[in-house]
């Protein structure tokens, strides 16, 4: 098994210390000033850092210990999370994903190393996403390739609306799809906050009797949002690869003014200033 990492809270750290005492797990000296404690006992190898990060050897014995100490969400049957990627890139699609996870699935994803995607390097993120795709938890993605994106953006603009209106529409669409799918009695929805009012407007038809909706800054601290972000970023990268192959361009390195004007609407978001200027040359 390859090493895995996750971040634990102060309460979870205290539970781990209690578990060590209760089971007489063998602690060994730390090897750096950044380590808080190190466990090495038979097949178990767990290192806890002062930052809260935990690295373990990924085997069944180590995972069993972490499973014991990780906090579970007790008030909801499902926790949904949504996030998007591609809105800041002039090239490629806009991708919006929602996931729906049970409390137990959240624990499993944490043990796998699912966390804020901004802290994950691209190679690890792509591997992690492939693992997620093999799992059976519910997820739904809207991918607006540049041609469709430009069409929709123009329609929203004609109505006097902005990119945030389009994002709110996309987030609400994936969330509503997940709510319809899970049909649970008690659900929490977490959205990585970008425009509170526009998102609320799009979700105003959702029955809140058993559904709590939270728009949260730094939403990727919530595992369902983090998982959605990883899936969205993976999808974005794969779609950019397809566009590169189809049009013989390296979009990650190219500049809009180096791309044939007839091709630009198929690979780029036309409202971006650098793209718009290039299309007029």
Largest sheet, strands/sense/barrel: 5 strands, antiparallel
Rg, rounded, reads 22 Å
The CATH architecture term of the largest domain is: 2-Layer Sandwich
Shape: globular
Mean pLDDT: 94
Strand content: 15-25%
Distance between the termini: 55 Å
Extended strand count: 10
What are the secondary-structure elements, in order, as H or E?
Answer: EHEEEEHEEHHEHHEHEHHH
Task: Kindly name the structural category.
Answer: alpha+beta
Written overview of the protein:
- This protein has 281 residues and is an alpha+beta fold.
- The chain has two domains: 4-69, 2-Layer Sandwich (TATA-Binding Protein); 78-240, Ribonuclease H-like superfamily/Ribonuclease H (Nucleotidyltransferase, domain 5), CATH 3.30.420.10.
- 44% of the residues lie in helices and 21% in strands.
- It is built from ten helices and ten strands.
- The strands form two sheets. A five-stranded antiparallel sheet has the order 1-5-4-3-2. Strands 8-7-6-9-10 form a five-stranded mixed sheet.
- Strand 6 (78-85) and strand 7 (94-101) form a beta hairpin.
- The radius of gyration is 22 Å and the shape is globular.
């Amino acid at each position: 098994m390859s090493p895995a990492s996750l971040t634990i809270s102060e309460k979870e750290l205290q539970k781990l210390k209690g578990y060590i005492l209760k089971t007489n797990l063998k602690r060994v000296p730390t090897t750096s000033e950044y380590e808080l404690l190190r466990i090495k006992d038979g097949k178990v190898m767990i290192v806890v850092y002062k930052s809260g990060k935990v690295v373990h050897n990924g085997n069944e014995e180590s995972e069993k210990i972490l499973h014991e100490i990780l906090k579970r969400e007790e008030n909801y049957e499902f926790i949904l999370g949504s996030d998007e990627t591609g809105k800041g890139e002039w090239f490629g699609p806009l991708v919006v994903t929602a996931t729906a996870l049970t409390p137990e699935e959240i624990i499993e994803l944490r043990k796998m190393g699912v966390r804020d995607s901004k802290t994950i390097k691209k190679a690890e993120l792509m591997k992690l996403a492939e693992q997620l795709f093999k799992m059976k938890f519910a997820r739904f993605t809207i991918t607006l390739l540049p041609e469709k994106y430009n069409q929709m953006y123009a329609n929203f603009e004609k109505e006097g609306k902005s990119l945030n209106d389009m994002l709110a529409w996309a987030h609400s669409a994936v969330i509503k799809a997940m709510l319809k799918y899970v049909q649970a009695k008690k659900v929490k929805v977490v959205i990585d906050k970008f425009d509170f009012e526009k998102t609320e407007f799009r979700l105003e038809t959702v029955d809140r009797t058993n559904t709590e909706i939270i728009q949260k800054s730094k939403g990727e601290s919530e595992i369902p949002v983090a998982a959605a972000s990883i899936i969205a970023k993976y999808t974005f990268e794969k779609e950019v690869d397809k566009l590169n192959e189809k049009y013989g361009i390296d979009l990650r390195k190219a500049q809009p003014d180096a791309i044939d004007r007839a091709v630009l609407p198929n690979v780029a978001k036309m409202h971006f200033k650098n793209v718009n200027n290039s299309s007029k040359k």
